[in-house]
């Protein structure tokens, strides 16, 4: 099951993007999101695309991989596009099909909406393809660290995040195994009313949950046995080092931001 | 009867005095008193529910006894001292997955060392050294999902040894793995015990593992059933039965041969029994050739 | 009848990356009502093979014959009742239990396969009795049982559906020695008393040797060996490829065979301690 999703996978490589500090990539993503929010026309959309395609090329990962990342969400994108197309009536009338009318304004809005979603997903893909999950978590933790003074339990959150990254795939594998075991015992949801389906899913949820809790207890023991103490000072083996290239990377986001807001 | 093989000057690594532990209404350990000298390799056996795993967990503070005291290297075990004492005790669990925290082998070995707040250069050194010892260098950057159970367990052992404990507890560490892993494991433990005088406690159902230790303690129903040399205790069938262990083939063969009037003594060791049988055969064939002349 | 695999191939289709050939033109043949053991190193294809036996996985190519059923690659339909007639017990089977009491979990399987409540109850009772689970155990929650008992309960839950073929993946994993022997004995009785075909995947050869008729060794998705246990013991290369060690019984036998003029066929091909002792005695008497 864990292998069915393209988005969220790390793909090994040595491109520029791979070598950047995860903090610059994460910060860049926030800037990018801001830029994408400002996109509202064909022109601004093309600027966004041009910038994104450049980044994707720099990642040295085939564009087909990015296409596959977007694929699962095509239905959603199509839905949003059609929604915009049929519910906006600015601009020239282009087409009339029975009750529905398509206007050029609606078409633009629809395409722009589709484009924005695609850009979001593509950039998220760039981040996840080129940055190992624990590095993203590390970057996030370091951004949140100042909030520790305000009482936010950053250490706890960071621990939760890194353990989730390590164990969610393992738990999924176990869930798959339990599902197969139950199917082998005749478990089936086919042709059942919704209420019955919900009742039957307990055959999966109970064992997976019990096992997850047992695992959590074992992990807590094992961590304590390895001298882990929450909140105690500990060394960071993996270090992030901010280079000049990271500053340059971050500054490069100023370009699309500037032009898009200009033409907004 | 307590057994002190090294009763000369060596300080006790672990002392349990009058320990009682209950879980709910069940008494898990009943007024247990035990002393383990430094550098001793102790095997703990017993059926499920005998209290052996609880005993191990008491030693590093994962469980707390209702009564009695535990002394490690002269320090009384108290929640204030948990960190200090735990840093001297390496604990290996049975499940390879549930003690692998890092996203790579390297990160996992680093985990414990980070907890000890060691300097980065030292962490780097220890990772290299212990990965080398456990044959993990080619696997250092692998994700646990790509590793077999045996490889993960080796990584866990490296991670625990890297913290350079003076006491090593192995809680059924090989039970989920196959026999080839076990043999390599035993060789390594023997090396660590001899060369570094590491105090070792292994909990196991495997006769070979139990036989490799200096001392065997068999628990039953929360008390010590037997305490002595593995070579002696593992030949006692009633003890094997109580602990749900099976006599090794070599021993079974010795006993069956005795039923046929052939007495080669009793041994747990395959090679020893074979040697005795060969010796018996050569003496017989000598007799045969002599009488045929 | 029995079970036959003809040129069966299967690869895992993971998104992107290469296709991994897990089963590579497997050909094998097994008679019914036998106790069969499958061995192989991790990654050899054992668990993939098992999942083809009850339709969890569909072969890409090749045909599988199970008793009177035929399983062909999709879009051909799976034979009806395949998962009832072939019971598959996964490793650490106790993880699948989820009902409040063991008894309810035993009923789960048969009821899923649309058997009447009365039949389900009698089947569950028979399975519990066979595995040595008494009334007190049946009334308990699975989480209150010992490791040996809970393993037996999980296996009983699959037996309750009355499969004709039972497949078990490492059924003795993590059990103590006495429990392992007990469980294997029970599985053998399923074979000898109830004529069921029993297929066990294991790396603990000592556990199965007193009972198994046939051992199949897999290596990198192909069948490396299929034959009697004593024949396997002569193939050190196969033992190594499968990550197995020669069991003590055969080690002793082969070490003494020549000098004593021992004959494995006289020992029913398995040199158990009593039998080997008797053979040694006979040979020594012969020398006098």
From TrEMBL, chain A:
CDD domains per the UniProt record, alphabetical: EcfT
Annotated TM spans: 26-59, 65-87, 245-263
Recorded topology in the membrane: Multi-pass membrane protein
Keywords: Membrane, Transmembrane, Transmembrane helix
InterPro entries given in the database record: ABC/ECF_trnsptr_transmembrane
GO CC annotations, alphabetized: plasma membrane
Protein name according to UniProt: Energy-coupling factor transporter transmembrane protein EcfT
Native species: Paenibacillus montaniterrae
UniProtKB/TrEMBL annotation, chain B:
InterPro entries recorded: AAA+_ATPase, ABC_transporter-like_ATP-bd, ABC_transporter-like_CS, ABC_transpr_CbiO/EcfA_su, ECF_ABC_transporter_ATP-bd, P-loop_NTPase
Membrane topology type: Peripheral membrane protein
GO terms for cellular component: ATP-binding cassette (ABC) transporter complex
Domain ABC transporter: start-end pairs: 14-246
GO MF annotation terms: ATP binding; ATP hydrolysis activity; ATPase-coupled transmembrane transporter activity; cobalt ion transmembrane transporter activity
Annotated compartments: Cell membrane
Keyword Ribosomal protein: no
Major localisation: membrane
Keywords per UniProt: ATP-binding, Cell membrane, Membrane, Nucleotide-binding, Translocase, Transport
Keyword Transferase: no
Domain of life: Bacteria
Alphabetical list of PANTHER family matching this protein: ENERGY-COUPLING FACTOR TRANSPORTER ATP-BINDING PROTEIN ECFA1, HEAVY METAL TRANSPORTER
Family as reported in the entry's similarity comment: Belongs to the ABC transporter superfamily.
The protein's name: Energy-coupling factor transporter ATP-binding protein EcfA1
UniProtKB/TrEMBL annotation, chain C:
Record has 4Fe-4S as a keyword: no
Transferase is among the record's keywords: no
Pfam families (UniProt xref): ABC_tran
GO molecular-function term, one example from the UniProt record: ATP binding
Residue intervals of the ABC transporter domain: 3-245
UniProt-listed PANTHER family: ENERGY-COUPLING FACTOR TRANSPORTER ATP-BINDING PROTEIN ECFA2, HEAVY METAL TRANSPORTER
Protein name: Energy-coupling factor transporter ATP-binding protein EcfA2
């Amino acid at each position: 099951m864990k292998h069915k999703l393209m988005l969220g996978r790390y793909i090994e490589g040595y491109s520029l993007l791979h070598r950047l500090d995860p903090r610059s990539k994460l910060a860049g993503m926030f800037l990018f999101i801001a830029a994408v929010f400002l996109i509202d026309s064909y022109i601004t959309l093309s600027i966004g695309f041009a910038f994104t395609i450049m980044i994707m090329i720099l990642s040295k990962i085939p564009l087909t991989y990015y296409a596959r990342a977007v694929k699962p969400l095509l239905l959603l994108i199509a839905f949003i596009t059609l929604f915009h197309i049929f519910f906006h009536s600015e601009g020239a009338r282009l087409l009339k099909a029975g009750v529905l009318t398509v206007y050029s304004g609606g078409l633009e809005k629809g395409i722009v909406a589709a484009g924005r979603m695609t850009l979001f997903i593509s950039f998220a893909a760039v981040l996840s393809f080129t940055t190992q999950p624990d590095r993203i978590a590390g970057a996030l933790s370091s951004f949140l660290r100042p909030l520790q003074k305000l009482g936010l339990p950053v250490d706890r959150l960071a621990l939760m995040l890194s353990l989730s990254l390590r164990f969610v795939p393992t738990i999924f594998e176990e869930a798959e195994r339990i599902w197969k075991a139950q199917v082998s015992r005749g478990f089936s949801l086919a042709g059942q009313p919704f209420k019955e389906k919900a009742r039957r899913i307990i055959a999966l949820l109970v064992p997976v949950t019990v096992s997850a809790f047992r695992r959590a207890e074992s992990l807590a023991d094992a961590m304590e046995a390895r001298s882990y103490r929450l909140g105690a000072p500990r060394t960071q083996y993996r270090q992030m080092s901010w280079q000049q290239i990271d500053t340059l990377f971050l500054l490069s986001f100023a370009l699309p931001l500037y032009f898009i807001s200009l033409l907004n | 009867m307590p057994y002190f093989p090294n009763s000369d000057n060596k300080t006790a690594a672990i002392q349990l005095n009058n320990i009682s532990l209950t879980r709910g209404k069940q008494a898990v350990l009943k007024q247990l008193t035990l002393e383990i000298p430094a550098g001793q390799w102790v095997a703990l056996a017993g059926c499920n529910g005998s209290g052996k795993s609880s005993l191990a967990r008491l030693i590093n503070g994962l469980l707390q006894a209702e009564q009695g005291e535990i002394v490690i290297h002269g320090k009384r075990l108290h929640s204030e001292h948990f960190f200090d004492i735990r840093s001297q005790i390496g604990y290996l669990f049975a499940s390879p997955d549930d003690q692998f925290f890092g996203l790579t082998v390297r990160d996992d070995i680093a985990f414990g060392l980070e907890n000890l707040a060691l300097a980065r250069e030292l962490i780097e050194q220890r990772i290299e050294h212990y990965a080398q010892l456990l044959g993990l260098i080619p696997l250092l950057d692998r994700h646990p999902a790509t590793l077999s159970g045996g490889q993960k367990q080796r990584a866990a052992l490296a991670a625990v040894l890297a913290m350079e404990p003076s006491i090593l507890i192995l809680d059924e560490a090989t039970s989920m793995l196959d026999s080839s892993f076990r043999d390599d494991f035993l060789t390594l433990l023997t090396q660590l015990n001899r060369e570094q005088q590491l105090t070792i406690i292994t909990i196991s159902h495997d006769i070979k593992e139990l036989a490799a230790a200096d001392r065997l303690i068999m628990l039953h129903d929360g008390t010590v059933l037997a305490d002595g040399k593995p070579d002696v205790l593992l030949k006692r069938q009633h003890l094997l039965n109580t602990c749900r262990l099976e006599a090794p083939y070599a021993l079974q063969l010795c006993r069956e041969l005795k039923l046929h009037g052939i007495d080669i003594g009793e041994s747990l060791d395959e090679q020893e029994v074979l040697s005795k049988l060969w010796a018996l055969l050569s003496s017989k064939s000598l007799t045969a050739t002599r009488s045929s002349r | 009848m029995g079970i036959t695999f003809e040129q069966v191939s299967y690869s895992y289709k993971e998104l992107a990356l290469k296709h991994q050939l897990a089963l590579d033109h497997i050909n094998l043949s097994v008679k019914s009502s036998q106790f069969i053991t499958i061995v192989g190193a991790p990654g050899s294809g054992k668990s993939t093979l098992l999942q083809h036996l009850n339709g969890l996985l569909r072969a890409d190519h090749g045909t599988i014959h199970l008793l009177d059923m035929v399983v062909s690659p999709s879009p051909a339909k799976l034979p009806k009742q395949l998962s009832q007639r072939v019971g598959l017990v996964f490793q650490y089977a106790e993880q699948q239990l989820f009902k409040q009491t063991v008894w309810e979990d035993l009923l789960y399987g048969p009821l899923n396969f649309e058997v009447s409540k009365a039949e389900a109850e009698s089947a569950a009772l028979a399975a519990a009795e066979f595995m040595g689970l008494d009334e007190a155990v049946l009334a308990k929650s699975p989480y209150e049982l010992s490791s040996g008992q809970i393993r037996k309960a999980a296996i009983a839950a699959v037996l309750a559906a009355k499969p004709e073929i039972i497949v078990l993946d490492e059924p003795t994993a993590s059990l103590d020695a006495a429990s392992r022997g007990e469980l294997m004995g029970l599985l053998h009785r399923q074979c000898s008393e109830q004529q069921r075909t029993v297929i066990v995947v294991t790396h603990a050869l000592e556990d199965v040797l007193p009972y198994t008729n046939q051992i199949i060794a897999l290596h990198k998705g192909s069948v490396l060996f299929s034959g009697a246990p004593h024949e396997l013991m002569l193939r050190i290369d196969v033992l190594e490829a499968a990550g197995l060690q020669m069991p003590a019984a055969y080690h002793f036998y082969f070490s003494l065979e020549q000098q004593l003029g021992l004959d494995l066929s006289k020992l029913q091909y398995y040199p158990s301690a009593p039998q080997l002792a008797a053979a040694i005695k006979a040979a020594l008497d012969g020398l006098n």
